[in-house]
Every structure is written in C-alpha cells, then in structure tokens.
C-alpha cells in the first residue's frame, strides 16, 4: 500500500509540472508536426493537468512551434495531387485532425496563391480517366453513376464532378 502511494505522489506532482509537460510536448514535436488539439490530447493522455497543458501549448504557439494554419498548409502541399481528392475531402481530413475552419481557410488561400491556382477539375478528370478503364465494359448510364459516386466519395463537389464527367465523355466520343 505504501509503495503505491509513493508511486502516485510523483505522478501527481508531474501532472502540475509545466517543465515536464513542455519537455514531453517537445519530444512529441521532434518526431512529427502536430496540431494543437493532437498535442493537447497526447499531453492529457500522459496525465498532465488541463491548465498546465494549456499554458504549455500557449507558450509553444507563441514561439511558433505549434501553428495549425502552417500544419494545414503543409498537409495540403503534401497531399494535393498525390491521391486526387476534392477540397471537401481534404477539409474533412484536416477537421478530423483538429484544425479549425479559420486555419484551414488561411492554409487553402496560401496554398492556392503559391500554386498559382489549384485546378480541382483537373484532378477530378484524372480520377475519371483512371477509373474509366475499370468501368469501360459497363452500360454508359451505370458507368456515369459509378464515376459520380467515386468522385463524390473523394470529396469533389457536384459542379466539379459534372465538368469532369463531361470532359471524360467527350474524350470517349472521339
């Protein structure tokens, strides 16, 4: 019983130690870039008290080690075009990672500016071209339904999907 009480005491003291929490956060950031919410969750999982976690995160954000808009921009740069997906899908993935809508909007604007525009329709057309081969033997109506569903799952909006399907069908007519 005494050994258990002694072990619990240092853990309780550590939970309120901002230096230990800062060191733990820095170790987590060494491995990979993280969102503020991910880092907060991991520190809470390690047993740090909420006020300590918030103070550490504020300090790290103040020196630029945590920046969700920068995280979102890096995510978009890495993800765009690698596996074609629409803005909705990318935004959902970022929200799932805990990035706020304002940070996503800033990252998207910065990304589009850096790219000189981001042609979502071109990505959708690429998906149609790749998938059309698989669906070539299907009835044209069924093929169109399947391609539409595929593009919708990938996060493309209806207008972009229609553009891609029109471009794909005119290519097939040639």
Describe this structure as you would to a colleague.
The protein is mainly alpha-helical and 174 residues long. It has three domains: 61 residues; 48 residues; 54 residues, Arc Repressor Mutant, subunit A (Orthogonal Bundle). It has ten helices and no strands. It is elongated. The N terminus is likely disordered.
Q: Using only CA atoms, what is the Rg?
A: 23 Å
End-to-end Cα distance, whole Å, is 82 Å
The biggest beta sheet is recorded as: none
- Mean pLDDT over all positions: 85
Report strand %.
Answer: under 5%
What best-fitting shape do the alpha-carbon axes yield?
elongated
What string gives the helices and strands in order? HHHHHHHHHH
Low-pLDDT sequence parts: 1-10
In total, how many beta strands?
0
Helix percentage? over 70%
Output the number of helix runs.
10
- Total domain units: 3
Structural class: mainly alpha
Outline the fold blueprint.
Elements: H1 2-15, H2 18-31, H3 36-45, H4 50-62, H5 68-79, H6 87-96, H7 101-115, H8 120-135, H9 140-153, H10 158-173
Helix pairs in contact: 2-4, 3-4, 5-7, 8-9, 8-10, 9-10
How would you briefly describe this protein structure?
The chain has 174 residues and is an all-alpha fold. Helix content is 77%, strand content 0%. The protein has helices spanning 2-15, 18-31, 36-45, 50-62, 68-79, 87-96, 101-115, 120-135, 140-153, 158-173.
Q: Which descriptors would you attach to this protein?
A:
single chain; 174 residues; mainly alpha; Arc Repressor Mutant, subunit A; 3 domains; 0% strand; elongated; disordered N terminus
């Amino acid at each position: 019983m005494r050994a258990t009480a002694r072990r619990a005491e240092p853990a309780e003291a550590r939970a309120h130690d901002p230096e230990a929490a800062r060191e733990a956060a820095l170790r987590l950031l060494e491995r990979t870039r993280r969102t503020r919410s991910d880092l907060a969750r991991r520190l809470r999982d390690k047993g740090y008290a909420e006020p300590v976690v918030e103070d550490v995160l504020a300090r790290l954000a103040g020196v630029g080690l945590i920046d969700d808009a920068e995280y979102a921009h890096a995510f978009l740069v890495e993800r765009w075009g690698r596996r074609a997906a629409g803005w909705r899908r990318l935004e959902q993935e970022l929200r799932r990672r805990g990035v706020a809508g304002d940070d996503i909007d800033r990252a998207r604007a910065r990304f589009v500016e850096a790219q000189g525009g981001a042609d979502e329709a071109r990505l959708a057309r690429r998906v149609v071209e790749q998938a059309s081969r698989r669906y070539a033997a299907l009835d044209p109506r069924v093929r169109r339904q399947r391609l539409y569903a595929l593009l919708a799952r990938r996060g493309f909006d209806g207008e972009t999907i229609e553009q891609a399907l029109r471009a794909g069908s005119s290519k097939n007519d040639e």
